[in-house]
Specification:
The complex is a heterodimer of chains A (295) and B (343). Chain A is built from 11 helices and 4 strands; from the N terminus they run ββααααββααααααα. Chain A has a domain at 21-223. Chain A is mainly α and 295 residues long. In chain A, the strands form 2 sheets. Chain A has a two-stranded antiparallel ribbon. Chain A has a two-stranded antiparallel sheet with strand order 3-4. With 343 residues, chain B is mainly alpha-helical. Chain B has a single domain, classed as ABC transporter involved in vitamin B12 uptake, BtuC, CATH 1.10.3470. Chain B is 66% helix and 6% strand. The chains are: A mainly alpha (295), B mainly alpha (343). The interface between A and B is large, with 44 and 43 residues.
Chain lengths: 295, 343
C-alpha cells in the first residue's frame, strides 16, 4: 500500500475506476444524443428515461422470464430501440419542420410520462439487480482491487463507442448518414430513403441509451429516477464537447468521468457540481465547445 | 443600450392595443372580485406562478430564448427572501486555504417583508447576470441545455448550503408587517399585496415588450444575423432581457416565499423549470396574457388533481405532448387567431 498526494492508492484508483465507469455512461449517452441530434435536429430529453427503461428491461427480463444478463444486454436495447422507433413514428416525425425547441419540449413531456408511470408502478425505492455470476469476482492488481464487472463495463462501453464511431465515420452506411445530415434533400434525390434512415437512427440512439441502462443495472439500483439524475449531467457533457464530432463526444464523456472521480477524492463536496463548473469555464474560453465548430 | 444605432425601430401603434386594454380591464376586475368566491391562498399561488410565467415568457416569447433553468431564479430568490425575513444575519464563506473556509458574518435583524423581497429579487438579478452572461454564448438548443445545467448546479448548492435547511427547506417564515405597519397574517391583506406586486410586474413586462428595446428583441428573435448587420449589439440586448426575466422571476419566487412562509428544494428543482415552460406553452407563447391564463390553468389543475398525487407528472407530460403536437398557439393564441386581435 502506498500513497499519492497523501491519498492511499486504493482510494485514489478506486475513485478513478468509478470515474471511468461514470465516464462510460456519459460517453454512451452523449454519443446517442449526438447521433440523434445529427439526424433529427432534436435534443432527445427522453434519453434519460430510455436509459432507465433499459435497466428496467434487464430487471424485468430476469424477474419474470429468467433471461440472464448477457441475453438482456442484447434484447433490452432491441426492445427499447423498437419502442423508440414507435415514438419517432408517432410523435417526433411531425416536428422536423418546426423550431428545434418543440422537439425538446415534446421529448421532455414524454420523459415525464415514462418516469411518472414507472414511478407509479415501482415506487422511488431502487430494485437491486444481481451481478452475473461470471463477472462477480475480481482481481487484485497490487495497487488496487479490480472487480471484474467494472472492467467489463468499461470494456463494453469502449468497444461499443469505437464501433459506433467506425460505423459512422468509416462505412458506406455512415457516409450516407453523414451526407443526409448535411443535405437531406440532395441525398433523397439520389434515391436514398432518408425518412427511414432518420427513424432507424433514432432507434439506434435509443438502443445505445438502453444498453447503457443494462450496463448500469448491477452497479446502481434500478430506479425510475436514475434517468433524470444522469441526463442533465450528460447535457452539460454535450455542451462541453459539442455535438459536431462523434469522437469528441466519446473523449469528453470518459474525460469528464475521470475528472469527476478525481474530484471525489480531493474535494468530495464539489463532485456533484464539478462538471457544471467545467461547462462554465469552457463556455468562457471556447464558447463552441472543445470539439465543436462555430455555428 | 445603443441609442445611436437605433434607426429602424418601428413606431408602436396605439390602435391595435384596444383588445389588450379590454383584456387588462377584465383581468383587474377578476382580481378584485375573485377573493369573494375563491380561496385567497389558491389565488395567491396562481398569481405568483402567473408572474413567474410572464417573466419566463419575456425571454422565450419575445427574445426567442428557451431557458430551461428558470427555477434557479425563482427558487434562490425564495431562499434568500425566506432567510432574510426569518433570520436576517448573513454568513458568507471565503476561502483561507484548500477546502478551508472562514465565515464573514454580517449581523442583521430579520427584515420586513418588502425589504426581504427586495433582497431576494436583487440576488435573482445578480444570478441572472452571471447565468445569462454564460448562456448567451450559445444559441438555440444549447442555450436551453446550458441554463438547465446551471440551474442543476445551483440545485446542488442549495442541497449542500447550510442556510437552506436541506430537505426540510426554510419553514415557518414570518409574513411580518409590511413597511413595519400592515400585518400580513390576514390572508385577504396578503392577497391585496400579492395582487399589487403581480400587476406591477405585469405592467413592467408590458412596458418592456412595447418599448424600443422590446422591438429590437423581437427583431433578434426573428433574425439575429440581420439585427447584427443593422448595427445592434445583440448580445447586450439578450443579456438585458435575460437579467430582466430573471429579476421578475425572482420577484415571483420571493413573494411566494412570504405568502407560503416556505422555501424548499421543490422551488429550485428542474421540475419547476419544466412547469413554468408548460404554463407558458399552454397559455400561449409570445402572448402578453397567455402565461397568466396558463399559470391559472396549471395551478388549478394541480389543485384538483392533488388526490391523484403520483399522476401529476404523467398528466403534465401528456399536456406537454398534446400542446406541442396539436395546440402550439395555446389558449390565448387561439383566441387571438379567432378574434383577429393581439392579446
Amino acid at each position: 500500500m502506498f500513497e499519492i498526494f497523501g491519498i492511499p492508492s486504493q482510494a485514489l484508483f478506486g475513485q478513478l475506476l468509478l470515474g471511468l465507469i461514470n465516464g462510460s455512461f456519459y460517453a454512451l449517452l452523449s454519443l446517442g444524443l449526438a447521433v440523434i441530434f445529427g439526424m433529427l435536429n432534436i435534443i432527445n430529453f427522453t434519453h434519460g428515461a430510455q436509459y432507465m427503461m433499459g435497466a428496467f428491461a434487464a430487471f424485468l427480463l430476469l424477474q419474470y422470464l429468467n433471461v440472464d444478463y448477457f441475453a438482456a444486454l442484447i434484447i433490452a436495447p432491441l426492445v427499447i430501440g423498437a419502442l423508440g422507433i414507435v415514438i419517432e413514428r408517432l410523435f417526433l416525425q411531425w416536428l422536423y419542420r418546426l423550431d428545434h425547441l418543440y422537439g425538446l419540449l415534446l421529448t421532455f413531456g414524454l420523459a415525464l410520462i415514462i418516469e411518472g408511470l414507472f414511478h407509479y408502478v415501482y415506487g422511488s425505492a431502487g430494485q437491486p439487480y444481481r451481478l452475473p455470476d461470471l463477472l462477480s469476482h475480481g482481481h487484485n492488481l497490487g495497487f488496487m482491487y479490480l472487480p471484474d464487472y467494472r472492467a467489463w463495463v468499461i470494456a463494453v462501453s469502449v468497444v461499443v463507442c469505437l464501433a459506433t464511431w467506425f460505423l459512422i465515420e468509416r462505412t458506406k452506411l455512415g457516409a450516407y448518414l453523414r451526407a443526409a445530415t448535411e443535405n437531406p434533400t440532395l441525398v433523397r434525390a439520389f434515391g436514398i430513403n432518408v425518412p427511414r434512415m432518420i427513424t432507424l437512427t433514432y432507434g439506434f440512439g435509443v438502443g445505445l441509451a438502453a444498453l447503457a441502462g443494462v450496463l448500469a443495472a448491477p452497479i446502481y439500483n434500478v430506479s425510475p429516477q436514475m434517468g433524470s439524475d444522469i441526463i442533465i449531467v450528460v447535457f452539460a457533457v454535450v455542451v462541453i464537447g459539442g455535438m459536431g464530432s462523434i469522437m469528441g463526444a466519446i473523449v469528453t464523456g470518459f474525460g469528464l468521468g475521470i475528472v469527476e472521480g478525481l474530484t471525489k477524492v480531493f474535494w468530495p463536496e464539489a463532485s456533484n457540481t464539478v462538471i457544471f463548473v467545467i461547462m462554465a469555464i469552457v463556455l468562457l474560453i471556447r464558447p463552441a465547445g472543445l470539439f465543436g465548430r462555430r455555428a | 443600450m445603443q441609442h445611436a444605432a437605433a434607426p429602424v425601430v418601428p413606431v408602436v401603434q396605439a390602435s391595435h392595443e384596444k383588445g389588450q386594454i379590454v383584456a387588462f380591464a377584465v383581468m383587474v376586475a377578476v382580481l378584485v372580485v375573485a377573493p369573494a368566491f375563491i380561496y385567497p391562498v389558491f389565488l395567491m399561488k396562481a398569481l405568483c406562478f402567473a408572474l413567474f410565467a410572464c417573466a419566463f415568457n419575456l425571454l422565450i416569447g419575445y427574445g426567442g430564448l428557451l431557458s430551461f433553468g428558470h427555477a434557479l431564479f425563482f427558487g434562490w430568490a425564495a431562499y434568500v427572501t425566506a432567510h432574510m425575513a426569518k433570520v436576517g444575519t448573513i454568513q458568507l464563506p471565503y476561502p483561507v486555504g484548500w477546502r478551508m473556509w472562514e465565515w464573514l458574518v454580517i449581523p442583521l435583524p430579520p427584515l420586513t417583508p418588502e425589504l426581504a423581497i427586495l433582497v431576494g429579487t436583487a440576488v435573482a438579478a445578480l444570478l441572472g447576470l452571471v447565468a445569462g452572461w454564460l448562456a448567451i454564448r450559445r444559441q438555440g438548443i444549447y442555450f436551453a441545455m446550458i441554463t438547465l445545467a446551471l440551474a442543476q448546479m445551483m440545485f446542488f448548492f442549495a442541497v449542500q448550503a447550510p442556510f437552506t435547511g436541506g430537505e426540510d427547506g426554510i419553514q415557518g417564515v414570518p409574513r411580518g408587517r409590511l413597511f413595519g405597519l400592515i400585518d400580513l397574517r390576514n390572508d385577504l391583506i396578503m392577497y391585496v399585496f400579492v395582487a399589487v406586486v403581480f400587476l406591477a410586474g405585469f405592467l413592467l413586462i408590458y412596458r418592456i415588450i412595447h418599448s424600443p428595446f422590446g422591438e429590437v428583441l423581437k427583431a433578434i428573435r426573428e433574425n439575429e444575423p440581420r439585427a447584427i448587420s443593422l448595427g445592434y449589439k445583440t448580445e447586450r440586448y439578450k443579456l438585458l432581457a435575460f437579467v430582466l426575466s430573471a429579476t421578475i422571476a425572482g420577484l415571483a419566487g420571493s413573494t411566494k416565499a412570504i405568502v407560503f412562509q416556505l422555501a424548499s428544494l421543490t422551488d429550485v428543482h428542474w421540475a419547476m423549470s419544466g412547469e413554468v415552460v408548460l404554463m407558458t406553452l399552454v397559455g400561449g407563447l409570445g402572448t402578453v396574457f397567455g402565461p397568466v391564463v396558463g399559470a391559472v390553468f396549471i395551478v388549478g389543475l394541480e389543485n384538483y388533481s392533488a388526490r391523484f398525487g403520483e399522476w401529476v407528472p404523467v398528466i403534465q407530460g401528456c399536456i406537454f405532448v398534446f400542446c406541442v403536437l396539436l395546440f402550439r398557439r395555446g389558449f390565448v393564441g387561439l383566441i387571438e387567431q379567432a378574434a383577429r386581435i393581439k392579446l
